[in-house]
Amino acid sequence: MRKVRIINRNHPIDIVEAAEGRADGFFVSYLPGRPKLVTRLHTARIFIDQFNGLSAKQGGYREYWIERQSISRANLVTAPSRAVVDLTRTWMPLSEKTTLVVHNPIDQSNFPLSTSVRKNTVLYAGRLERNKGAETMRDAIPILLRRFPSLEFRIVGSDGRDRDGQSWRRKILDSLDPLHRTKVRFEEMTRKELVQAYQEAAVCIVPSTWENSSYVLLEAMACATPVVACNSGGSPELIEDGVSGFLIPVNDSEALVSRVAELLAEPALRKLMGDNARRRIEESFSVDRVLPKMIAAYDYAIAQG
């Protein structure tokens, strides 16, 4: 914030966008000259703690309060999904007049289509934690590996610990037949490597109990990779169920197995659903579609008294 103050002193800032998470907007609201503040809802910590089964004592009441202030002090609140607006309204009031849904954009040039043959892999990208569906994935993987002997799972992202303190990587490995443990690969990747992983995967799964607006979904869909995600949060706003991906109930490992197995068994369905996913990105979430809406939102915020 000291650096922002220096910039603002030398070149007065018209508008600042900041997430409610970590309460950056709260500090922006006290800048000299008070630039217009746009607070973008990412999902407040109070909800993240709830989703991961943490009590308020394990979280931080002060952080909850300050994040709330970063929302209430904004000239305009934007959100990448209607779902996160509705969720935030369970915690605090939001004005219809100064709250707008502007979806996250995806730059398709960074996620091109691939002409290479897809591998027999299922991809998961994200931190391993309960909120991200680690338990559902742990229960589904052994069944799918028994049903499809040549299948591999690529789990990209950092490990996390469950409420009992145990590593999710260890829990997933312990759920497997020893012969199948080499079929599950835990990896860290660069952005370029992740794009290639999307392009190579037969299916990408996002079994989170909550996602505001998943960039993993957007990126996989841009690469024409069939996706399976939970019917919660903002995912139904991205995926047309049965057309550009599959939506399943939260915490339903049987449904995850069923939809992934359906895609693995039917190459024509994978191709059709992947093509529809790419079309969905082009029509609704490309930079060309989203950028004018975001600029209009900034103009609206600047015009506010």
List keywords for this structure.
four-stranded parallel beta sheet; 13 helices; alpha/beta; 14% strand; Rossmann fold; 2 domains; 305 residues; globular
Could you please describe the fold and organization of this structure?
There is one protein chain. This protein folds into 2 domains: 2-105 and 287-303, Rossmann fold (3-Layer(aba) Sandwich), CATH 3.40.50; 108-285, Glycogen Phosphorylase B (Rossmann fold), CATH 3.40.50.2000. The chain has helices spanning 2-10, 24-28, 45-51, 61-72, 82-89, 134-147, 168-174, 191-200, 215-222, 235-238, 253-265, 267-285, 287-303, and strands at 15-19, 36-40, 76-79, 99-101, 121-125, 152-156, 184-187, 203-206, 227-230, 246-248. It has 305 residues and is an alpha/beta fold. It has a 6-stranded parallel sheet, with helices on both faces. Strands 1-2-3-4 form a 4-stranded parallel sheet.
Can you give the mean pLDDT? 94
Going by CATH, the homologous superfamily of the largest domain would be: Glycogen Phosphorylase B
Terminus-to-terminus distance? 24 Å
Q: Kindly state the number of beta strands.
A: 10
Rounded to an integer, what's the Rg over CA atoms? 21 Å
Largest sheet: 6 strands, parallel
Strand content: 5-15%
CATH architecture of the largest domain: 3-Layer(aba) Sandwich
Instruction: Give the ordered list of helices and strands.
Output: HEHEHHEHEEHEHEHEHEHEHHH
| Count of domains | 2
